[in-house]
Amino acid sequence: MELQLEPRRKVRRWWLPALISLLVLAILACVGISVHVGWQLTHKERQPIVETPKDYGLSYKNVTFISKDERTKLRGWIIAPHGQAKMTVIFSHGYGGNRHQSNVPFLPLAKRLVNEGYRVIMFDFRASGESEGDMITLGVKEKYDLLGVIDYAKHHYSEPIALYGVSMGAATSVLAAALDRDVKGVIADSPFSDLASYLRTNMPVWTHLPNVPFTYLIMTIIPALADLDLGESSPIHAVDAIAPRPVLFIHSKDDPSIPYEESVKMYRTHSDVFRLWLMEKAKHVKSFEMYPDEYTAKVLAFLRQLQKGERQ
């Protein structure tokens, strides 16, 4: 019997260390992949500025803004209407985009607003376009960029200020408006309502990796390495500080990137003063491209209502 058990003991002694080694390697591989993917998500390749307002017959001024963090320089444009401006509307682009956000597209919409007498400010968030910064933070620090642009507008112009943003820029506009009472209203196209909960559910859409274990690893490792608090990018926790100022939420029911329910949740927090426009068939931030006239009419009607409230 002893002669038969000895080989088994040797096999066990070899098998256990091998299994432990494989588990350690697998864990290290998952951590390595998570760090790599997380780094890529927060360090997107910058999209070049390939068109300007001049391409749409608009005169403009190149401007450098300073983020509210008082150190990050942001590049952008100011597009003024003929005569006295009715209002200043600050555009905020989405994740991985830049100031002209060509997939929306921003400049044709800006032209329609400028022709109606609105001043439009367009700028690049940190780590995007031609602005400084090396990390995209999905609203956590971008809200300080937008607050810096708002400060510039308040210092240079007397007209009321409204915010317009798409996707990450929409969420950031909500966050910034909650922190600055001088913002009269917000137009939020396809925002997420809470960054942490959105990422927990939708990270595989961005990474093409299984939720377990990668979503949890990425959401643990990257914030720790970058000193980020994802809780600072939670528009649904900011809307109470905006009301009774109005917000117009725009979302497509067929948005494959950010579910329209994200906007619905925020709208319902103050449905007496917030507005919601849902449409169908449009993909993510494609509502203006698909329904340009109706979209413009909704935006202009909202801005006119803000002006009316300002005069009362």
Automatic annotation (TrEMBL):
Transmembrane segments: 14-39
UniProt entry keywords in alphabetical sequence: Aminopeptidase, Hydrolase, Membrane, Protease, Transmembrane, Transmembrane helix
SUPFAM superfamilies xrefs: alpha/beta-Hydrolases
A GO term for molecular function: aminopeptidase activity
Listed Pfam families: Peptidase_S15
Every Xaa-Pro dipeptidyl-peptidase-like domain range: 73-206
InterPro entries: AB_hydrolase_fold, DNA-binding_regulatory, Xaa-Pro-like_dom
Name of this protein: Dipeptidyl aminopeptidase/acylaminoacyl peptidase
Taxonomic source organism: Saccharococcus thermophilus
